Amino acid sequence: MVGKVDFLGIGAQKAATSWLYDNLQRHPAVWLPPIKELHYFDRSPDYPSPSYLASSSLVHRLVGREYFNRRFRKNLRFDLKAAFSHKDWKTIGWLLHYYLGTYSDRWYLSLFKPGKGKLRGEITPSYSILALADVQHIKDILPDLKIIFILRDPIDRAWSHMRFVAMLGMFDGISDPAKCRRFIDADDQALRSDYVRTLEIWRSCFSEEQMYIGFFDDIGQDPKQAITKIFDFLGLDSQCVTDDPAVNNRVNAADEMAMPDELKVYLARKYYPELQKLTAMVGGCAVSWLAHAERILSVTDSLL
Asked: In this structure, what CATH number is given to the domain that contains residue 170?
């Protein structure tokens, strides 16, 4: 018998998805995989995502020279080493099934068998960039699924991601305006900040009642209330977890750094049309994000 999936967290990237994973993981009625992001539905190398599950052949995964197969082996070594260091035999067994299995929908669902009797789900921010056909496929195999999508001001989200990859040593252009613009305009970033596209695609497949739209700002202002709303959406008791002071922890936060004015203006111009559409779609904090972009652009215009 295969497992069941009750919910997906689909992003946005750098919008507290690691915080969400940690808080859901602490709930006694929830089961999450040992690793946060499974990347099953975005495994095609056509997507600007890790795609380390792209090869259906285990042999290719183990010896292939493609970037996604090299990434596969790196992740395999890292995760197994961590599990062996803790002598965590259950996690080791799960990881071997995850990395060495034959990828299919049945295999994907089987990853959730250990959570029988609990609410089960996973959080992969790259699912926000999926094309319509792949989201429809998710709907076909998981028609009762609940979706959690947390939005962040796209100006701040892009800058946060840039700082994060720079902190990891994966981007050396944080002080170079030209390199920053290329980073922002890359397909990966363009898709991850295109919330309107994501909402249109997912809402065309799932009902409004199946989707929870949250805001990064609300988590920063009152994390206890923010996680309570998500627990309520999932039908979970919130009291047992929200009294834990760990709900206030920041997870995978980038180093603080002031955004250069030139980059701030570039991002405001880029995302202003998007924010106009988003405000009409979801309201909430998007209204203040639009006002933020307008303030940046009004100051710039006054200097011309």
From this structure: 3.40.50.300
End-to-end CA distance of the chain: 66
Task: Tell me the one-letter amino acid at 199.
Answer: L
Ramachandran angles phi, psi of 122, nearest 5°: -145, 165
Are 78 and 35 within 8 A, CB to CB? no
Q: Residue 276: which of 260, 263, 251, 293 has the closest Cα?
A: 293
* Cβ–Cβ < 8 Å for 16, 219: yes
Residue 172, domain extent = 7-32+120-303
pTM, full prediction: 0.93
Q: How many domains does the chain have?
A: 1
What's the CA gap between 52 and 18, in Å, rounded? 20
Per-residue pLDDT of 119-152, as tens digits, reads 999 999 999 999 999 999 999 999 999 999 999 9
Residues β-bridged to residue 147: 8, 211
Q: Is residue 232 part of a domain?
A: yes
